[in-house]
Amino acid sequence: MFDHNGKIIQKTPYPRPRGTTVSVQQLFSTLPVRHKEFQRNIKKASV
């Protein structure tokens, strides 16, 4: 896991199949308007 400056703050091995895995957490935590729009788009996509 990386902080806002791109520095590694946590290394955790995850067992998974071959390939690339991307995990995104708190993507829009500092941008409330983007977060609301993202939530709205999720609701639209699931209908």
Automatic annotation (TrEMBL):
InterPro entries with a match to the protein in the record: HATPase_C_sf, MutL/Mlh/Pms-like
Highest taxon listed in the record's lineage: Eukaryota
SUPFAM superfamilies in UniProt: ATPase domain of HSP90 chaperone/DNA topoisomerase II/histidine kinase
GO terms for biological process, alphabetical: mismatch repair
Region of interest called Disordered, as start-end residue ranges on this chain: 1-20
GO molecular function, one term: ATP-dependent DNA damage sensor activity
GO CC list: mismatch repair complex
PANTHER family referenced in this protein's UniProt entry, alphabetically: DNA MISMATCH REPAIR PROTEIN MLH, PMS, MUTL (PTHR10073), MISMATCH REPAIR ENDONUCLEASE PMS2 (PTHR10073:SF52)
Family that this chain belongs to: Belongs to the DNA mismatch repair MutL/HexB family.
Protein name according to UniProt: PMS1 homolog 2, mismatch repair system component
